[in-house]
Amino acid sequence: MSTKNKKRPKQNNFLRFFKVLSRLVHSLPFKVRRNSTLVCAGIIALGILLSSVTMPKAKPVQKTEASQPTATAATQPATTPAPLSTLPGNEHVIQGIPLISQDYYKAGCETYACTMLLQGLGFDIDEYRFIDNYLIQENFSYDDAGNFCGPDMNSAFAGNLFNGAGIFCPAMAKSMNKFLETQRTTKRAFPIKGQTLAQLCAEYIDKGIPVMTWVTTYMDESYEKLSWVVDYVDENAEHQIGDMQTWRQNEHCMVLIGYNDKEYLFNDSVAGKVVRHDKTLAETRFKEIGNQAVVVRDP
Length: 299
Fold this sequence. Notes:
Layout: H1 13-26, H2 30-54, E1 84-87, E2 91-94, H3 109-120, H4 127-133, E3 137-138, E4 141-142, E5 148-151, E6 157-158, H5 169-180, E7 188-193, H6 197-203, E8 211-216, E9 223-232, E10 244-249, E11 251-259, E12 263-268, E13 273-278, H7 279-288, E14 292-297
Parallel strand pairs: 3-6, 5-9
Antiparallel strand pairs: 1-2, 2-11, 4-5, 7-14, 8-11, 8-14, 9-10, 11-12, 12-13
Helix pairs in contact: 1-2
C-alpha cells in the first residue's frame, strides 16, 4: 500500500515539549547536564501539572427522556369501582366480586360461591378455613341393615368435599352465619326459596347485593342420580329421619352478579370466570334445583 498521501498522526503537545526538552538537556556538557537534571525534572512535573489543569473538562452526560424512570401501573393509585355499574346494552353488573377457581374441592361449589360473595363484601375468609371451621357437614354411611344413609341437604352438606353431593340454601346460610357471628358486623345470611332470577335481580342486584344461586353446571340439564336414607336433620330439614333424599346430577352453585336484556351474569368457580347464560335457560335450571338462593344483608 502507498504511504505517499498518508497523514501523520497529530502529536500530543506534552510529548512534543518533552522531546524538545530532552534534546536540549543532551546537548549540554556533562557537568551542566548533571545539575540540570533536577531542574528538568521540576520542569517536567510543572508541565504535567499545567497540562492537567488546562485540559478541557468532559461534559456531563445528560439524561435523555428514555433514561428517565417512568411510572408503572403499580405506582398509580387504585380506583374503587362503583358497587353497581350500568353498561351499554342495559347491562347491570356488580363490581368487585372476586373469582375463585374450584381447583381443590371438586364437590364444593357452594363453599366457593359463598367465599367469593363474602370476600366481595370485604370479609377475610377463604374456602379452606370456611370448610374447616364453619361448614355443616355429614358424611355418608351404611346402617346396620345395609342402607346407604346421609343428611337432609337442607340441614348439612352431604358427603365429603371431593366427591359428595352438596348442600342446600338453608344449611348454607346457617353455616355462613356461624362465620358472620365471629365478625364485627350486623350482616347475616338469609336463605331464599321460591323466587325467580328476575325477582332476585330486581330486589338485590339492582341494589348492589350479589346473590348465591343454585343452578346447574354449564346450565346442562339435571337429572336424579343418587338417593339415600335420611339419618340427620335439624330445624331446616324438609324430610324426617328414614325418608329418602334424592340428589340431582349437575347441581351447581354460582354467584349472580348482573344481567342485561337477554342474559344473566354469574361468577362461576368451575369455569373460573364470569359466565353469561340465556335468561330463559337459566330460569329453567334454577327452577330444576328448587329456586334456591342466599343473600348476605342487614336484617
